[in-house]
Structure formats: C-alpha cells, structure tokens
Design brief:
270 residues, Fructose-1,6-Bisphosphatase, Chain A, domain 1, D-Maltodextrin-Binding Protein, domain 2, 2 domains, five-stranded mixed sheet, 27% strand, EC 3.1.3.15, Inositol_monophosphatase-like, His_9_proposed, magnesium
Length: 270
C-alpha cells in the first residue's frame, strides 16, 4: 500500500478481514452439523481431520484476498504458502477446531491474522454459527449478532495460579515427560482446569473469563490471529521460553502479566 500511512493501511486490512469473514462464514455453515466425508491428513495412526468446509472456506478467502491485496502473501493451513511482494502476509486457518466442527460442537472458529515483516499486527476470530466475532485494532473488540454494538475486550487481573482458571484444548496434545510435566504442574495448582476450546478459549481469555492457556506444538496458523487479540485486551502470550509466538510452537497465554511471569518460572524449573 505505497503512499499510505500505517494507520490507513491497518484500517484497510481490518475492513478486508471482516469482508473475508463474511465471505467464508456461509461456505462453512452450509456443511455444519451435516453428514459429510472427513479425510485424515495425518499418517502413522494419528488423526488430523479435514473437510470440504475447511478447503472451501480457505479457497474463498484466498480468492477474495487476491482481488483486494494481490501483492500480499498468504499462508493457509490447507493450501500452503503463496508468496507476495508486500511486507504483509495473511495467516489463515479456515476452521480452527475441525474436531469440534465434525461432532457438531460450536467450539471452533475461522482465524484470519496479518503479519507485517513477520510481526503480528492484526487478528480476527469469527464464529459464524454463534454469530460472534473477536478482532483487534488498537484495542480488542467483540461483536455478537445478539449483542448490539461492538464491545471492548479486557482481560482480568489474576496474579496467583491458585486463583486461576486454566484451559488447554486436550491433554493428549502434551507428548513426552517434559510437556506432560508442564501441564500437570500448572493443573495441580490452578483453581479450575477445563479442556476443549481451540481458538475460542483464547478469545474467552481476552474476554476476562479464563486466566491461563497452555498448549504445545501449535502452528503459525493456529495462533497468529489470536496474538493481537490477546495483547490488545491486556494479556500476554509467548512461547514457553518467553519468545515470540508468531511462528507457533509451545504456547502460554495469560490475562495478567504477573501470572505469566510466575507460570513461565514454574514450567522452566522442570
């Protein structure tokens, strides 16, 4: 976007991201809670499901994005990377939570993130079935079809793990003694632990309803869109070693920076 200010560039990105969510939602919903084939992308006995809803939504997003910002790159879970000449790169997971999707649970969402020179600058999570959308600008925002005007998101204060609500998508994600110890250490101290949620849980953290999320082995398309939402809501999200989460990896997010510092110290003592 030559000749435009950073603020104008971000404004255009926000507008297009909402358009992409509006386009992809109906593509997904026509398959939700319907009988459909489920393919397995994994090998070696694992299960990594994909459906025509995943592929159809990503295709619709990619085609629409090519008309809006033809020079932008895109990384999608289903169709890989398309290089661009711009410093902007879109990171798309058409259905984060496909396992939930195929059993009819609404704990899934479409993730649309944008990096500039490798740094996350914008994120959006759309849940078209419930009519909810979470996104970031200079603040984090939320809108529901039943909730009227967009509301600002804010994480809540929680300094002690003993007072915290902890969540992760599933304990079987934690492989090997080191990862399992990280989960069990936090779980044993937390007030409450719940499983499930995928991207939806991160938005609940940004909404001040969850205090800490820990997950291993995420890809960039699992997390890039969620980083700006959490940070603009006042939370902290890093790798387990305190590094940038933009490329994925082992991820820990908290609503309170003090809790994040303590949780990192706990898992890095193991």
């Amino acid at each position: 976007m030559p000749g435009t200010s950073p603020a104008a560039e971000l404004q255009a990105i926000v507008r297009v991201a909402h358009e992409l969510a509006d386009i992809s939602g109906p593509v997904i919903l026509k398959h939700f809670r319907k009988t459909m084939p489920v393919e397995n992308k994994a090998i070696g006995g694992a299960f990594d499901p994909v459906t025509k809803a995943d592929r159809g939504a990503e295709k619709a997003i990619s085609e629409a994005l090519a008309t809006r910002f033809p020079d932008h790159g895109i990384v999608g879970e289903e169709f890989g990377t398309k290089s661009g000449t711009s410093p902007y790169q879109w990171i798309v997971d058409p259905i984060d939570g496909t396992r939930s999707f195929i059993i009819g649970s609404p704990l899934w969402g479409t993730l649309i993130g944008v990096l500039k020179d490798g740094v996350p600058v914008f994120g959006l999570m759309d849940q078209p079935f419930t009519g909810e959308r979470f996104w970031s600008t200079d603040k984090a925002a939320y809108h529901s079809v039943r909730g009227g005007r967009p509301a600002r998101l804010k994480t809540r204060e929680c300094t002690r793990i003993e007072d915290a609500v902890l969540t992760t998508t599933h304990p079987e994600m934690f492989e090997g003694p080191e990862q399992q110890s990280a989960l069990s250490t936090l779980k044993e101290k937390a007030r409450l632990t719940r499983y499930g949620g995928d991207c939806y849980a991160y938005c609940l953290l940004a909404s001040g309803l969850i205090d800490i999320i820990i997950e291993p082995g995420l890809k960039s398309y699992d997390i890039a869109a969620l980083i700006p939402i959490i940070e603009r809501a006042g939370g902290v999200i890093t790798t387990w070693t305190g590094g940038s989460p933009a490329s994925g990896g082992n991820i820990i997010a908290t609503g309170d920076a003090r809790l994040h510092e303590d949780a990192l110290a706990m898992i890095n003592k193991l």
